[in-house]
Amino acid sequence: MTTLTTSDVAALLDDVAQLLPFPTTLYTDMGADSWAPQLYFGPVDPASELPAHRAGIDADTVRPVWWIDLDGGTRTILLDEVTPDDVCNVAARIAATQQCE
Predict the structure, then answer these.
(1) DSSP secondary-structure letter at 47?
(2) Which secondary-structure segment (H or E) carries 95?
(3) How far is CA 11 from CA 29, 48, 57, 64, 75, in A?
(4) Which residues contact 4 (CB under 8 A, 6 or more apart)?
(5) pLDDT digit string (tens) for 80-101?
(6) Is the pTM of this model over 0.90?
């Protein structure tokens, strides 16, 4: 899987969300460069009223890459060793970020 549509990204994020042991929100930021959905999780940021952490797929590259942004984007984890369809591994990596909180 190398070319991902917005629908593909949404489906993969939904699959990841179903594997996570905590609440998530699938949200598309219409003000961003690409209108790709992102998965939000963690504590709610009062300024945006969205959870402070998010994950998604950079699908506008030669090889799509999963990423995790923590604390409003102050820490980013690139999962460049994970294929886009490896939702189990992505969910495990996201869940591991929450074990320390």
Answers:
(1) T
(2) helix 87-98
(3) 17, 24, 11, 15, 25
(4) 12, 57, 59, 64, 84
(5) 999 999 999 999 999 999 876 5
(6) no
Question: Tokens 């489906």 identify what position?
Answer: 11
**Angle between helices 6-19 and 87-98 in degrees, nearest 10:** 60
Contact 59, 36 (CB under 8 A): yes
Alpha carbon 28 to its chain's center: 11
Note the pLDDT tens digit of each residue in 40-56: 999 998 988 889 999 99
The residue type at 70:
L
What span, in angstroms and rounded, lies between the C-alpha atoms of 67 and 91? 11
Distance CA 43, CA 84 (A): 26
The first and second tokens of residue 42, run together, are 């963690």
Residue type present at position 67: W
**Token representation of residue 50:** 């969205």
